[in-house]
Design a protein that fits this description.
Elements: H1 11-20, H2 39-50, H3 60-75, E1 95-100, E2 104-108, E3 117-123, E4 129-136, H4 137-143, E5 153-156, E6 164-166, E7 179-180, H5 185-188, E8 200-201, H6 203-211, E9 217-219, H7 226-241, E10 260-265, E11 269-273, E12 299-308, E13 311-321, E14 340-344
Parallel strand pairs: 1-3, 6-13, 7-8, 10-12
Antiparallel strand pairs: 2-14, 3-4, 5-11, 9-13, 12-13
Helix pairs in contact: 2-3
């Protein structure tokens, strides 16, 4: 009998780090069940621990040190005598901090890293911290509309005669031991929980459930509202999979509980961000059965749609593993160079 997944208490990581006397420079394997803080729990800790902190009247350098000091305290790390100029600044948990009064995020003299976490800290006009949002570098890359990123992968989607295509007949060998043909998602989980053994549907089952969405129509939010278009699709996906409610926290992959990334294409170019689907880099989720999930294990659901008369109609659906992604969708080549990255954050960036 499958039981529901209890939420992870973020404080248990803090206690473990403190008891082990780790420093922010001690490396931790991604997904380590004791010391690696998954992004959801990581954001919860920082948001709860930094909100309300006043930076009023502080010079920029002092402000930066005050923020980093509080971050160490919140996560259970001792405050170092001085902060080293490492990349990232907090190597142990692989993250950097950025304080923002505006929605124009500036990253100087380095590329975004797909495996790095970026803690974006919202500062009010009164210099109070009001919100902390943590995203992976790959998520930030997808927000770039300026074309300034040094490395941003893309692929091409050309629909064929068949409205649905299951590109990978089976899940990857790493994922196979943990998937099942049927599970009551309405009862046990939400879309944004961490994936767990015997709670993930097989790729064949996901294909069968989501293929039913071909032919569905929903209101078009407009070409400049891709995030809203995506949200409308994600709602349909969550419902078709069997979840009781729709949830999307803006992290990769979209339906984390099923290791499913969902993309809506109204043109052939697929934006993939800073990491290729076939990458064997570790994914920022807790280990499952002692195994670390990789990007290539993620399932990619690609929906193709037409826009007409204020409506989006889903005409094609493709499902594949990251490992088999480029067997159907050819990768673009090419790079753009720029020393300073300026990424405009969406107006609702801090809302999720």
């Amino acid at each position: 009998m499958t039981t529901s997944t209890p939420p992870i208490d973020p404080q248990r990581y803090v206690s473990a780090i403190r008891a082990k006397h780790l420093s922010i420079y001690d490396p931790i394997a991604v997904g380590d069940p004791d010391y690696w803080i998954p992004t959801l729990e990581f954001q919860s800790l920082l948001d709860g621990g930094l909100r309300g902190l006043s930076l009023a009247g502080l010079p920029l350098r002092t402000r930066s040190k005050v923020v980093k000091t509080r971050v160490c305290e919140v996560l259970g790390y001792p405050v170092p005598p001085s902060f080293k100029k490492t990349q990232p600044r907090f190597p142990g948990q692989m993250f950097d901090t950025y304080t923002q009064k505006s929605n124009n995020l500036q990253v100087w003299n380095e590329e975004l890293s797909a495996s790095r976490r970026y803690a974006i800290i919202r500062i009010s006009d009164e210099d109070l911290i009001t919100r902390v949002k943590v995203v992976m570098g790959n998520t930030l890359a997808l927000l770039d509309t300026t074309g300034t990123l040094t490395r941003k992968y893309q692929a091409r989607c050309i629909p064929g005669a068949q409205p649905t295509e299951l590109i990978a007949a089976n899940d990857t060998d790493r994922l196979l031991p943990f998937v099942v043909q049927n599970v009551d998602l309405d009862r046990i989980a939400t879309p944004v929980l961490h994936p767990a053994d015997s709670q993930m549907l097989t790729i064949e089952t996901i294909f069968a459930r989501l293929s039913s969405l071909v032919g569905k129509r929903f209101a078009d939010a407009g070409a400049d509202q891709e995030r809203n278009r995506g949200a409308a699709l994600h709602r349909l996906v969550c419902e078709a999979l069997g979840y009781r409610s729709y949830q999307d926290d803006g992290q990769f992959p979209d339906v984390r509980h099923q290791l499913l990334e969902v993309k809506l294409q109204t043109s052939p170019t697929i934006d993939l961000g800073l990491v290729t689907p076939e990458s064997v880099e570790p994914l920022d989720v807790p280990m499952i059965g002692g195994k670390q999930i990789r990007h290539c294990d993620v399932r990619y659901g690609i929906f193709y749609g037409n826009v007409a008369n204020g409506m989006v109609e889903l005409t094609h659906f493709f499902l594949t593993t990251g490992a088999a992604f480029f067997s159907r969708f050819p990768q673009f080549q090419g790079k753009v160079l720029n020393a300073k990255l300026q990424i405009p954050l969406p107006a609702d960036f801090f809302d999720t």
